[in-house]
Amino acid sequence: MFDSPKHAITAAARASERHQENTENIADAIRAHVVLSNKMSAFEYGCGTCLLSFELREKIGLITLADNSEGMLEVLQDKIRAESVDDMKPVKLNLSTDPFPDEQYNLVYTMMTLHHIPDTRHILRQFYALLNSGGYLCITDLDKEDGSIHGHDVANVHKGFDRKELASLAERKPADRGEGH
Q1: 136: which strand partners?
Q2: From 64, 84, 107, 171, which residue has the greatest number of CB atoms within 10 Å?
Q3: How many Cβ atoms sit within 10 Å of the Cβ of residue 45?
């Protein structure tokens, strides 16, 4: 695959730079479509190490960071401590199986998580139930692909989404979505 450790490290650095650039582009897209305010509360689902929330945090109030991976949350806790952040609250949460949180938010967003969740309709209902009236839901995920992104794990994930189909599913009237949890 790589002819030397140096080439492997260089390739990993390039991938990391692309990931950061993609995250910045996603944050810019959210800023372009949502008027952010320090009075807003936000909820990031599948936050991982929280790249997106760190890009948005200067313009948002309290951000709840949800992930179901203990390892990711530990890395995130270290990052929050290292940067002396006091406006982010990490929580271990799987919206498909865990008790539903009581809080509601002005903004719910997720980046590259939806394709890992088998029941798209259910998770969208959960996201809408987390939103205050007039709140915003922002989703970024894989475009429909052949499954090569995840290789061996393809049976357990969606192979991306057709943007129009996902938008149609997400934009249904509340009665059609089935509000609540």
Answers
A1: 107
A2: 107
A3: 24
CATH of the domain at 113: 3.40.50.150
In residues, how long is the chain?
A: 181
pLDDT at 148: 57
Q: CA 68, CA 73: separation in Å to the nearest integer?
A: 8
Q: What is the DSSP letter of 58?
A: G
User: Structurally, how many domains does the chain consist of?
Assistant: 1
In this structure, are residues 138 and 33 in contact, taking their beta carbons and an 8 Å threshold?
yes
Compute the distance between CA of residue 141 and CA of residue 127 in angstroms, rounded to an integer. Answer: 15
Domain that includes residue 164, residue range: 5-177
Residue 109: in which H helix or E strand, if any?
Answer: strand 105-111
- Residue-wise pLDDT tens digits, 113-154: 776 777 778 888 898 999 999 999 888 765 466 665 555 555
Tokens found for residue 171: 């934009």
Task: For the chain, give the mean pLDDT.
Answer: 78
Q: H or E segment at 42?
A: strand 42-45
The reported pTM is: 0.78
Q: Identify which of 109, 92, 106 has the alpha carbon closest to the alpha carbon of residue 45.
A: 109
Q: For residue 94, what are its two tokens? A: 């799987």
